[in-house]
Amino acid sequence: MRGSAVGFRLLQAAGFGFLGLVGLGGFAAWAGPGRPVTLRLPEKVSVVGPLLSVGDVAVVEGDDGVKVDRVRRVAYGRAPTTDRPYTLNALSLRVALRKAGFEPSEFVVLEGTEQVTTESQVYPLKGLLPKILSRVAQDTGEDAANVVLEPSEGFSRSVTLPKGQVLSEIRPTTGRYDGTVLFTAVLSVDGRPFRTVPLRCNVKVERPAVVVVRRVERGQKLDRDDLTVRRVTQAQSGQDPLTNVESAVGRVASRNLATDDVVRLSDLVDPPVIRRGQEVVCRVKRGNVILEAQVKAQDDGKAGSVIRVLNLDSKLTLKARVIDENTVEAVAGPVGGAKLRSR
Q1: For a 10 Å CB count at each end of the chain, is N or C smaller?
Q2: pTM of the model
Q3: What is the mean pLDDT of residues 189-195?
Q4: CATH of 207-269, one of 3.40.190.10, 3.90.1210.10, 2.40.50.140, 3.40.630.30
Q5: Spelled out in words, what is the top-level CATH class assigned to the domain 37-118?
């Protein structure tokens, strides 16, 4: 019995040692690198791009989900251009994984090749004109209705982009919007920048302005038949162009105006209401009494201007403000202190 107990204890010790070895070996296998991740290449794959990961081009399988996910997220390269697919082989995947820090024992790439193509859509560049118009209007502070765009280069083309939602960002190369302007359009697909294209167009900012329809000589009074409103560029309009025909009618040209010239505020003067040598009535207020006398204008005078007038009775000169074409109102006493005689 004693020998049996001793033998049992020896078997227990031997058994413990065996189980302990098995347990430690199992722990070592669990704690070690484990089974490698397997990658295989399908015959064909279609991608969006522009940048690809290993998971975009290969089927990744394995028992360790964390490692499988890490392998799938390894950067592989750029997608092929939409019109030129390329062939991918197992060697390129091995290189990508080694660059990412994976040891050869951690993965197995099954031999094979696949054709990689990019899903595409045709995007006409003329569709960018409204976006460019909006950008010019925003930068200049102009109403979009005043901005004229004439496409000159690039707009007749179409570009091939990956499938997805296309967004564009317009970047002008300068802050000048007069004449030919180069724009850069950055095209993004699903939020990822994909292509940059240059576009040129002639930009004109046009505003309504009064122009003459026939030649007008200096000193000539303008009437409605001489004028019309047209849209002109900022370079043509210059400073202070008139925008309403009525504001020019009845006024006098201060310079010669050729056909289609823009009429500016400085091009017009108000005609004299009273001409030099014209006899008019001069009024003088004395309290509630208004005295009148016949006078002769010594200067041309516009409405509201002050001119010299000669009292025909006293032959003395005084200053008067022009009221209308027949009336002035004295603003300073007769020169020499003489009194104005009433009529």
Answers
A1: N
A2: 0.46
A3: 85
A4: 3.90.1210.10
A5: mainly beta
